[in-house]
Structure prediction request, 514 residues.
Amino acid sequence: MVAAVLKSRLLRKRGCGVGLQALLESGTGTEQRISRQQYGRQQDRLRVDLVNAQFDLLELKLPVVVLIAGDDRIGINEVVQLLHAWMDARYLDTQIALEPTPQELQHPPFWPFWRALPPRGRIGLYVGGWVVAPIRGRLARDLDDDAFEAYLGHAARFEQALAADGALVLKLWLHLPRKELKRRLAGERPDEDAAWQIQDSDSAVLNEWYRWVPLADRLLEATDSPTARWHVIDGTHERARNLTAARIILAGLQRLLARRTSRPGGNSRRGRQPVRYPNALAAIDLAMRFSEDDAYEAALDKQQGALARLTREAREEGLSSVVVLEGWDAAGKGGAIRRLTRAMEVRDYRVVPIAAPTPEEQAHHYLWRFWRHLPPAGQMTIFDRSWYGRVLVERVEGFARPEAWERAYDEILDFERQLLEHGTVLLKFWLHIDADEQLDRFAAREKTPFKKYRIGTDDYRNRARRADYVSAANEMVARTSTKSAPWHLIPANDKRYARVAVARTLCGALRKAL
Prediction:
């Protein structure tokens, strides 16, 4: 009955899977037998084609992610070994989903998968990948239904983000019918005697079969999409399984290579209807300031003292936090950061200044460089500019295509949602100054020897496009300010006021979380 549920749900999804109906109706899959001679002839040609496609990918720097998972543990091992033998293993980045390490448990669940993303041109081979944890957690009752569904949503959006960025996402689910699994556990394998390969985990799958299959069914249904299809393969006969897996991968690589010259252009959103967003920046009261030096010093001392105590407590409690500072050039982001870090022990924080992406960063999805800098438990990461560059400078300056920065809103919201679900304190600040104040600060930098390096032609070019940046910033605030992670718009014409306001807001958030 459970197998019937798996069949009925998945077959309702048009195009879902490869050979799924044959798999579910075949029982032991006896019609899939392939002789050694046939296998030898077919594998020789497949190996040549796979290696040729692999080197074409490397030359053209096209990204590929292959996920291999399922209930056929032995089959998964054999297919991975086969790929390492048939392809050039130097350009396969293989990641195995094991029990999460203590370091991984200090971060959101998708942290290790983002960190392991291969650069463009290489093939990332994920064994078990991000689909092992939700089933394992649900079976152990570490996840309830809501948490299970939330995880599946993040998994689907992770795959869609990679595909939208140009990656080929191939997913193979190796399935062993229950009848065949029972035969193998009894030492009866059709192709060969492989009793020595059986492990306790295989018996556990059989014992949990009627709980396990509906979870797998739901996972496949929730994470199957036109850009990240599941290909379900019958693992009954190893030769047929091997050839099927290799052909699916080869076909995907060839499709990606065939469309390499038909990348989306930059004018696909030329007809977008303009949307008027509230002018949040205009509502900021830039007259806010400290009238006396003594009042500023007293207020800053109070907040720094509180921040020192709170960050020590956060370290002891394992509470991590992420602080984002955005705003105009010369708005005082660096000064605000220095006033924060002056109150903390150096082991408790890290400041990550974000500039133009390096060649290594350009070889990955734009969120990759931010995921890899997330703090472990008890620590704080301060981003001096952030992932919002995608919808600000990259949008305004044309470094990102319209469809790329438009979809970034959903990608950013999902990223931040994962931080919050993990329990991370997330604070986002926009430091706002008017155009006259900015020009005065530019001039002051040019006259100060140790600040001259911080002013250049890019600053003046960005200033000339202030109206475009105002429009982009207002849209950013409107679309990414949420109840759990609102934007804090800080009046910064008075640097001193801004520094105290940032520190006070951070202390309040830490106090609430602790």
Summary: Strands lie at 64-70, 92-96, 123-127, 168-175, 230-234, 321-327, 349-353, 380-384, 425-432, 487-491. The first helix runs from residue 2 to 11.
